[in-house]
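Example S7 (structure tokens).
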């Protein structure tokens, strides 16, 4: 999980780019990751569960980092 710390931000309260806050992650576990990968559409759930975990976490890491970078550009 250290390699994907950007996704699992323990200080996520107030960090809208994190997949879930620690409280949400404790309650819902991996469901938050799957929810985000599905683009919040249940019809995509079966498709994303066929992907490898490494592929999913790498995608989310990139997406989160890109979102943060774009936010800095807009505010800078």
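Recovered sequence:
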């Amino acid at each position: 999980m250290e390699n994907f710390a950007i996704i699992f931000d323990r200080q996520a309260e107030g960090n809208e780019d994190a997949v879930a806050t620690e409280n949400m992650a404790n309650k819902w576990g991996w469901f938050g990751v799957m929810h985000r990968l599905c683009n919040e559409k249940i019809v995509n759930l079966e498709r994303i569960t066929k992907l490898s975990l490494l592929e999913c976490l790498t995608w989310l890491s990139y997406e989160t980092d890109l979102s943060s970078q774009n936010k800095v550009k807009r505010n800078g």
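Notes on this example. The chain has a mean pLDDT of 80.
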